[in-house]
Amino acid sequence: MREQTWPALATSQSHALASNWTLFLIVGSCVAVLVWGLIVFALVRYRRSATSGAPPQFSNNYPLEIAWTAIPLVLVCALFIHTYTVESRVDAVVARPDVIVHVNAYRWGWRFVYTGGPTVGGAASSPIGGNPVSAKPELVLPFGETTRIELSSDDVTHSFWVPDFLFKRDAIPGQTSGFDLQPTRTGTFLGRCAQFCGLNHALMQFTVRVVPPAEFLRWRKEIALR
Amino acid sequence: MTGETAPTGTTTAARSDLLSWMTTTDHKRIGILYLVTSLVYFAVAGALSIVIRTQLARPNAHIVGPHEYAQLFTLHGTAMIFLFIAPFALGLANFLIPLQIGAPDMAFPRLNATSYWLFFFGGLVVFAGAGTNEGAAAAGWTSYAPLSEIKVSTGLGQDMWIVGVFLVSVATILTAINFITTVFIYRAPGMTMWRIPIFTWEMVATSLLVFLAFPSLAADLLLLFVDRHFGGHAFDPAHGGSAVLWQHLFWFFGHPEVYVLILPYFGVVSEILPVFSRKPIFGYTGLVLSAFAIAGLSMGVWAHHMFTTGSVNNPFFSFVSFLIAVPTGVKFFNWIATMWRGSISFETPMLFTIGFLMNFLLGGVTGVMIASPPIDYQAHDSYFIVAHFHYVIGGGSLFAIFAALFFWWPKFFGVKLDEVLGRWCFWLLFIGFNVTFLPMHWMGIVGMPRRVFTYADAGALPILNLIATAGSYLMVVGVVAFVVNVIVSARRHEPVGDDPWGANSLEWATSSPPPEHNFTRLPPIRSERPVYDMRRAKGDG
């Protein structure tokens, strides 16, 4: 499994998500550097010294105040349009997914029910005492194909999070939430519960193994035979 | 804080003094009770966070177990939010509002004392849960149902949390009524609404938010209590309830609450910057309007805490959240313009105010980021969020709290705090804070969820966590420097005059500390800077 130093961007959705991160990081850094710069400039330039006299007592400047209200307003509207576009792409679901998996979260484990079989997964930790189990529950996904995840919970609110996909969705008891994943990288990625769900929340992990479609079919058959 | 000396000996004197503090209805004494109590809770909540950071310093550590860890972060969050940051602002406002508007006391002094004692006992009830069989509440300060339902959280500690927080929320609503009434009808002649200090304005906006938001929390808590003990099913989907309902009611309170935690401190900063820049506040009208714009918008953003539920209208809540950046930006530009062409000096209150500006800016920028659902899909419930809200509430509110302590200490107790120790306190806290919380952004992006008691020994997490823990220890030294400062300056006891800083608002026109009736005589009030006008009239402005 990958070492966690930076997310791998392993789905087509995660590339759209990453572009939004990048835009906000750039705009945010520019705003931060500008405002920090103004503060530091003011502190250095206008510090009190032996020669500084009584400062001018001005207290407003309406054109300036209108400008620094209007410009940020335009900026956040532009950011919103971008964010809306990206979210629409990420939340979009295809009419006919290649694979459908019902993911059940429970205290403390994951059940992965593939439509048309098989059902895999299991406990992520021993129920009491907080020891991780030797093998984490594993979700297997075919590379390049679209998998629909139908998410639900048996008990309290959990959250299905794969940091390398830059994505999470809450598993809420009493309702089902669907979303699509299209893996664009093979390999094994760490998944985990993100919503605090009690004692062993920290250990409620799983792995996502992305394999080529042919191998995925082989895996499905093997499991069915077992 | 010295009481009257009784002729019968010190024991009786101390006892009567304690009794007089317990029965006081004087807004200044109630204010100080709030400040001291909330600072005690700060120390306790801070100590809990040090245990948390020690547990997380290394991967797979065993300093505390998962159940103890859950209680630690639940009590840490509950105490910091309900028992420190908000009540400190209430204490400050209790002390300052009547003085700033030239009134002899609050509108309802006995209601005021009632509020304080409800808050005091509410906090004790929450913490007393730690003494029950299954320990204190352990469902987080957000106490999400169904996790907090009796089927899962069986302990009495959870009930005590509900009752304690309920008492605190009632206390806060009563105080808001008191503040608004006081400001609207108790202003001195000449103190028009457009002349009241910005701090008082921010408290009016805060009080309105308390009115609108806290009843939702109280209702949420009552529903949970009914679910737990009287067979209700409000949050139980198996019986027609809804798990998402808790989140809606909680965040309908919870997001305005964030502004209850920051608006008062916008006020503090707006009071301090003009004094140490030797200029009037820039954009008074803009600052007032932006406070109400923030308050109004904050009522329509609650579901940005629920972007990942898949059951709210993400674009709507995202857009309204973005909009809050505009009035917040207005405040920043006004503060910078206040310093612009001023004559800036760097006493400790000003240092902490500058620290506030620097830290809060980063919290504001990450706030806009996570208001974007595609970013929140990764950041939500991760250490990125932990970093964000600590930059807002820790880097923002906490630094403004220290600014307020150093600035108004002479008015509270008649003595100044030591400047050299004050500078140590500032730099230790400023560096410690950033070393602790800056790495947490990265932890969140690479996948560390919040509220985990341990993490794997892989990738970037071990080193980032170790750095964060080192920073938190540095902050402890900074807090110790403050405690030493309090003791040193109390021992030295050099009295200060009415107005040691050359300040602007009315509290500086009376003695330090003020007499029980506040003012023997008021200066004429012809602008929002009556004390500045008074100095000029005397020829030393």
What descriptive keywords fit this protein?
heterodimer, A: 226 residues, alpha+beta, five-stranded mixed β-sheet, 3 helices, 34% helix, elongated, B: 541 residues, mainly alpha, 67% helix, globular, disordered N terminus
Task: Please tell me about this protein's structure.
- Chain A is an alpha+beta fold and 226 residues long.
- Chain A contains 3 helices and 10 strands.
- Chain A has helices at 12-45, 62-91, 213-225; strands at residues 99-106, 109-114, 119-123, 138-142, 147-153, 158-162, 167-171, 177-181, 187-193, 205-211.
- In chain A, the strands form 2 sheets. Chain A has a 5-stranded mixed beta sheet with strand order 3-2-1-5-8, with no helix packed on it. In chain A, strands 4-10-9-6-7 form a 5-stranded mixed beta sheet, covered by helices on one side.
- In chain A, strand 6 (158-162) and strand 7 (167-171) form a beta hairpin.
- Chain B is mainly α and 541 residues long.
- Chain B is built from 16 helices and no strands.
- Chain B has helices at 10-22, 27-56, 66-101, 109-128, 156-185, 198-229, 243-260, 263-277, 284-298, 314-339, 348-370, 373-379, 383-413, 419-446, 461-492, 530-538.
- Chain B is globular, with a radius of gyration of 23 Å.
- At the A-B interface, helix 1, helix 2, strand 7 and strand 9 of A face helix 3, helix 9, helix 10, helix 11 and helix 12 of B.
